[in-house]
Amino acid sequence: MMQPRPFIKLLRLQSAPVLQQLMLEERLLRASKENWCILNDGTQPPAIVMGISGKSHALLEVRRVVNDGIPVIKRFSGGGTVIVDAGTVFVTLICSKGAIPGLQHFPRPIMQWTEKFYFPVFKEITGFQLREHGIHP
Description:
Helix content is 30%, strand content 22%. It is an alpha/beta fold. The longest helix has 16 residues, at 107-122.
């Protein structure tokens, strides 16, 4: 008998501030046992989001960021430093450990699974791939 697929709740946001989105994600991760997909089409105001271990002095031109009044947000999880704005489409998946059978709970296997998950959507884009670093070598 085939196991039923896990249920996933969908939450659609429109231009939610990224700080509010990150706070919501952390609350769901810590308090909810359910699986979630959060979509946010754009964010206002533009901001810089850093992973938990990011060092602002090494990753940002701090003086320019302060002079330009750009909010800098440190998220509770890892990941790189990104600039987000109204043109950013966010997709967050929060899943229980057993939601994806056989998936190892480490960054690289999760990223490989995510690439396979998105490939059908982006198959028309030559060379589509997820990379640990967003800059081409």
